[in-house]
Amino acid sequence: MKTAVASPSRTDSTASLLRAEILNGSSAPGALLAESAVARRLGVSRVPVREALFALEREGLVEFSPTGRAFVKDLTPQDFEELYVLRLALEPLASRLAAQSFRADVTLLEENLAATRRARSVQDVTLLDLDFHQIILETSGNARLVKLWNSLRGELELWLGRLHRTHQMQTKETLQQTVDAHQSIVESFKTQTPSTCERLMREHILGWREWLPLAP
Length: 216
Description:
single chain; mainly alpha; two-stranded antiparallel sheet; Four Helix Bundle (Hemerythrin (Met), subunit A); 2 strands; Tscrpt_reg_HTH_GntR; DNA-binding transcription factor activity
């Protein structure tokens, strides 16, 4: 008997819809993503839903129980700690490696900052925030650093989106604080040595420590 396989376009569109719901908070942490219920709601068969869930598991947005049921990933304090430690290892190094290139041209970072200033939602700020850091990783010229970063990107977006939404409810200043912090980083790339850029990025990442919800 042949196993049903969904078309790539149907799987991709299903994954995109589920991804958006997870990242914007519509699907709450720990929520059950039952294949049949999701298929009915989206008007597709169960096959693209199943394949989309597997894809989202690889991105770190979905997790499966021992019985095979899919749930929205609910990041634990240990998950937060591990992501934080990895950012601290990758991003200061990438900043040092990218510093010479940015000393000559910071156009990509400045365009990102301009887009962040125009952001109309907290979710847009989150995406642009991560894009800012990804530009630095990619400019480092180290393909393995970029590969490691990309392997974390889904969970980082999940983590940062939740933190940004919580922070916005408390302070209403998520956009401005993001712009101010990133503006300082751009200015350092324009004028400072690679080692100074590395140190400033480390300080930037260390500043997120107070946002980590370490209590269960």
